[in-house]
Please model this.
Amino acid sequence: MHGRKKLAGDLANLPLGQLLRLVEAAGTTGRLTVESGTERVELAIVTGRVSRPDALMLRSVSRLLHAGSGRFRLETDPEVVIEGTTVPLSVLEELAENAGERAALSSDLGVDELIEASLIAEDPVESPPIHHLPPIVSDDPLEALVEELRDAAPEDLDLAQIGVVAADPRLWRGTVEARWRERGWELRLLAGPDAPLDGVDLVVVHHQLSITRVGSEDDWLRLVRRARSPETGVAVVWVGPMADSRWVARLVHAGVDFLLPPPAGDIGEPAERFHEVLAMVVERLIERRRHEEGGLGEPLVELAGALFSGAAPEDAVAAVLQLASRVLRRAGIVRVEPTVFRCWAGFGYPLAEGVRVLPRGIAILERAVRGQGPVASIETPGQGRRQLARLMGVETLPDTTCIVPLEARGRTVAVLVGDREGEPLDRLGEIVGLAPRLGLLLEGALEPRDTGSP
Model:
């Protein structure tokens, strides 16, 4: 990061430990000031490292690590210089945690002993080699794999169920149905406004002409209210003529999530453009989180943007993997694209020997993408686990393999897959705590998003 930038934030939104790890991963040079109550610490930082701390510094940092409130100010300055021994910011955090445990037992914290116990030398610890995989066009029959799983192991598939209510269901069969399946969506045709909504993730109501609803307006509004009720919680996309402003207002009051005019024709460019836009709308609504991100979003967007501005996309990917290497011996980032899961980068796994892409709908990954949260164990055998191992380039994965969704602005942009080669994942909480923020670091590397087939 070049030049000088000033950033400020609240420890309630970004705890100090996570801040230190992000600043280290970005290789930041500058000055960091942290305050909470009467406690105050000022750190000179050079490429993510600080001067060897003394006992007084460790006590202060230890208190600030556990502060529930407070402020931090970070000013980047490429001219900052540090003399003498330095340690990485993540090690400062570790030393401060150990100091906090010892402080209650002894007034002598034994800084030299702590540093030696942490196996920290003056030279930086070598990071694991990171493999970046170039994008490829897949030769694998992804559609055939989905059909095979549907027949032999349906429990290893998790396709979003998209209900469609349409006067002419033939318009939704064939091409539309196949394209949706590529995105991990299952088309379910529903019969009228009284159709059951059990198991449906989203409803599309298609009225090509206004006459379709004439005389049964209340029935259609009741369908919208039933779908949007707290008990059902299903998003509704209404496709129909928009000329009647009173009817549009009634739909909005009933709770419709999105309104689209019908296509100008059933074939050709108008139909293609309509279904492309509709797919974008459906994707956004499916990805929408059931909970708000609270105060985490914008401050982290600003911080991540400033720390990694001007950096190559690969640097942000490497930063995420560097953070993961503190906890995992092997890790891979799997990019979430509209029609595929694409293995992107990692360390430890022979990724180049893997299949590189998997179709959407593979349950072991899809459930993490849709907000199930991190998985710390994949003890259940099955085709999904085998396919994930193929993606990582290995024959099998240990039971103690984690799958952590990496989020940005309320959607999962990638998942982190990793393990310790069979050993317990004792410190997985370090990555899980950062997961809602790590996707923000990857956004620049993710654009433009792939909207076609692999």
